[in-house]
Amino acid sequence: MAVTDEAIEKIKDMIVSGALRPGDRLPKESELAAGLGLSRNSLREAVRALSLIRILDVRQGDGTYVTSLDPRLLLEALSFVVDFHRDDTVLEFLGVRRILEPAATALAASRITVAGLDALEQQLDALGAAPSVEQLVACDLEFHRAIGQASGNSVLSSLLDGLSGPTTRARVWRGLTQRDAVSRTLHEHRAILAALRDRDAEAARSWATVHIASVEQWLRSALGEPA
């Protein structure tokens, strides 16, 4: 592993230094191994590892390329990792979302387009006044994803996407067990949308905080955790 780690670091240095840029094709394996002072086996392992985390793209019969290095692509690995969370860490994921989600929503208040606002409203209208819990949670994910993208910060948006999985089950559980969960969620979505339409960043931030905190507060109560 130490040899493979060294190979990974050397390829990383080439990318960070600009010797290899997004979209560039890597030299032939034999040339690259010799140039970096590596064995071909350790280079191969390094390329395999870097392709798994979307740094490199191995194209059969064509060669190996540096990917676009777009944050959305690179942070896909985060979604994979957080899927291994334990149930007792869901509150921690919600705590992170309570920090990031309001910030993204506040940014979106000044950046979201009228077309984006209309799309959010159409989504809420299509959901109706009495959706199933599953429909509501699916809409919730799309609603916040669209707002995250409208923040204009692709890293922030991708982080929120990556963190959404662990909290989905908690939202379903809450919807099935808390009497007013559906109506409260619909109300909070409408309030967030109204703040975005008003271009009121602080109101948007506040409603997003309320929205996430209400799930967190319910889960703490359900698990018997101290507030």
Automatic annotation (TrEMBL):
<keyword id="KW-0805">Transcription regulation</keyword>
<dbReference type="Pfam" id="PF07729">
    <property type="entry name" value="FCD"/>
</dbReference>
<dbReference type="Pfam" id="PF00392">
    <property type="entry name" value="GntR"/>
</dbReference>
<dbReference type="InterPro" id="IPR000524">
    <property type="entry name" value="Tscrpt_reg_HTH_GntR"/>
</dbReference>
<keyword id="KW-0804">Transcription</keyword>
<dbReference type="InterPro" id="IPR011711">
    <property type="entry name" value="GntR_C"/>
</dbReference>
<dbReference type="InterPro" id="IPR036388">
    <property type="entry name" value="WH-like_DNA-bd_sf"/>
</dbReference>
<feature type="domain" description="HTH gntR-type">
    <location>
        <begin position="1"/>
        <end position="69"/>
    </location>
</feature>
<dbReference type="InterPro" id="IPR036390">
    <property type="entry name" value="WH_DNA-bd_sf"/>
</dbReference>
<keyword id="KW-0238">DNA-binding</keyword>
<protein>
    <submittedName>
        <fullName>FadR/GntR family transcriptional regulator</fullName>
    </submittedName>
</protein>
<dbReference type="InterPro" id="IPR008920">
    <property type="entry name" value="TF_FadR/GntR_C"/>
</dbReference>
